[in-house]
Amino acid sequence: MLKCIKCNRYTLSETCALCKLKTSEVQPPKFSVSDRFGKYRRMARMKNGDNDKGY
Ligand SMILES: [Zn+2]
């Protein structure tokens, strides 16, 4: 997938149709956002548990 870095538009052509700039290739994210937030929530919970033990 290609993306114009100026107007942040995803495109399939090598030049942006709007600003005529060369687009750069971008990799689509492997993990969904919800999964990532779930991981962080779990990590945060573990951290809090450790803090409780420390006090
Ligand atoms: Zn553009």
Walk me through what this model shows.
The protein is of the alpha+beta class. The chain has a single domain (2-54), classed as Rubrerythrin, domain 2 (Single Sheet). The protein is 40% helix and 11% strand. The chain contains one helix and three strands. It has one helix spanning 33-54; strands at 2-3, 10-11, 24-25. Strand 1 (2-3) and strand 2 form a beta hairpin. The longest helix is centred in the C-terminal third of the chain and has 22 residues, at 33-54. The chain is rod-shaped and about 60 Å long. The structure holds zinc ion (ZN). Residues 4, 6-7, 9, 16, 18-19, 21 line the site of zinc ion (ZN).
Q: What's the total count of β strands?
A: 3
Write the CATH architecture name.
Single Sheet
Q: How do the strands of the widest beta sheet line up side by side? A: 2-1-3
Report how far the terminal alpha carbons are from each other. 50 Å
Quaternary organization: single chain
Radius of gyration, rounded? 20 Å
Structural class: alpha+beta
Bound molecules: zinc ion
Contiguous uncertain segments of 5+ residues: none
CATH topology: Rubrerythrin, domain 2
Would you tell me the overall average pLDDT?
Answer: 80
Largest beta-sheet details: 3 strands, antiparallel
CATH class: Mainly Beta
Number of separate structural domains: 1
